[in-house]
Queue: 2 jobs
Job 1
Amino acid sequence: MVLGNAKMLESQGRKIIHLEIGEPDFVTPANIREAAIRALMEGETHYTPTPGMLELRKAIAEKTMQDFGVEVRFEDVSVTLGSKEAVFAALAAIVEEGDEVLYPNPGYPAYESGIRFFGGKPVPVRLREEEEFRMIPDRVNELVSNKTKAIIINSPENPTGSVLSKDDVKGIVEIAKDIGAYVISDEIYRYIIYDGLKHYSPIQFDENLENTVVIDGFSKYYAMTGWRLGYIITPKHLTEAVQLVLNLITACPSSFVQIGGIEALKNGMDAVREMVRQYSIRREVVIEEVSKIEDVHMVRPKGAFYAFINVSKITQKAGIDSFKLASILLEKYGVAVLHGTAMGSFGEGYIRISYANSVENIREGLRIIDKAFKELKKG
Ligand SMILES: Cc1ncc(COP(=O)(O)O)c(C=O)c1O
């Protein structure tokens, strides 16, 4: 919606600085684009099996082994149209009427609406600034019940940039195992991580792969949002249900897109490292500029490319909520940001900015925000 409004203002000739968009500003690395073009020219224009090409599923299983030291059967890897379809398929296969599903709030909005869509009860786990927005096992423990069917985790997290520690992930897996629930782990920002931190997946703590569903995708770290390519790794007993859902809704992802995915997995890491280096420079710029703005603060983001800025003093002084604040920033000042409540009810008092943007735009956008806040406080 913010993007739509921003585009409308642009069509009327206004200059807008886009700090709201949740996607890389980089174009997909050339070798990946070339692989897909080659595939098209060689006639890769047909359906593939529903869960994807064998070579791609095997490459995903191999990468999982390399990164996590965990052996997954390629049969349990299903390729999807972006990780969004993987979230949908996971919830479709798992959630039944009345099931409770825990999810991070603030968090990616498809979790809450997806749980509701399948008749489940969304149970928000409030991510707290004083806990660095991590979903810590103690908080999860307070909220589970005998109706809990699944716990969704997302690390690095959208919108807060929080990263779960090894103990967090391990603790959540233990809770899930105790109550016979699934952990659905959305890992689509997993390589975009800073300060020497390491990403942990619940798959590393679930010995017989019974409780963990891993969701991942090519959109963010390979800069492939428009390709629509992701995947899901399921425990053996869930695979058939997930693949039935995928078969019903999309049959399979585009064949030449999947070939681009194989190239990304085999020869994409240098480009990923370079993009993460660029995000890291931009993150420093955000931290520096936000520290200069009076009456706002934020937790240093540790992963992804978002900063979740606490603007509650500004909204209080101006007598408005974060939605109104974001509207004013866009309409009066030409800077598009996301109001915190776009990411769940516990996002009130925050705005999210994306630093998948040039250093110049980030600086200019944040300086305009500084000016806007000064004016808003004066009334
Ligand atoms: C946490 C999270 N999960 C999933 C997605 C969906 O990404 P895609 O469907 O492009 O893989 C997004 C996109 O913003 C996201 O932030």
Job 2
Amino acid sequence: MLEIKTVDETPSDEDYVFIFVKENAVVSLRRPPDQFWLRREVEHAFGKIGVGAPLGYWAGTPSYVVEVDSQDLDAMEHLSGSLYSLFGRVPDAVFAAYGRALQMLSWERDHKFCGRCSAITAPTDGGKALACTACGHSAYPRLNPCVIVAVGKGDQLLLATAAGRATGFHSTLAGFIEPGESAEQAVIREVQEEVGISVTNVRYVTSQPWPFPSQLMLGFFADYAEGDIVIDPLEIAHADWYSRNDLPTIPPPQSIAGQLIQRFFDVR
Ligand SMILES: [Zn+2]
């Protein structure tokens, strides 16, 4: 897996370099996406690149991310695509490395100028922050914490389909944590807002970074307390209680939703 720590050595030809065109990862058609590009290969294919944003170390090798121009892609050699297309197709640690690369690149792209005084920023704190060259205001990568919750009622689980998003899945409920709110409070509020029921016994289970664009999904279990399902039609198309033997199509096991559903039924 990608070891996240400060890269403090001089860039070399043997560094790993993740490449993106805007939000799309660029992979070589000649090998699988978990054989990462070396810096010398990137420079051979795309010309001189900057040092790039440091990501940490993959198997002891310093790793960076750079953006290239779509015009420099060679259709016979390169494939660019959303990270969604890699999800579940590469090992989880490889997907997480691509996810970190995309988030660091997006953050750098969105913070070229100071949000306070609009002067140019430059990397500081070993590349972990961007600091304003005029006023010193520094910006760190922003994560958006979200809760995702498997609500149980006896041996049944609440699953819902989202309004306006044809994922084909029945999934657990999820939503962003509001400023000033605890994760547990967000669970209770989101469930109440989306399906009109109250829950109790909210407990943390696991988490997953989700780089679309920069969520940190915090997974919970909660128990049904009271109320009938009344969906918010702006958020939810359909919601109901399901048993192990009548499950609809659920998200894949690599996703945190899939993991919560699996863990719920593992003990029932
Ligand atoms: Zn400034």
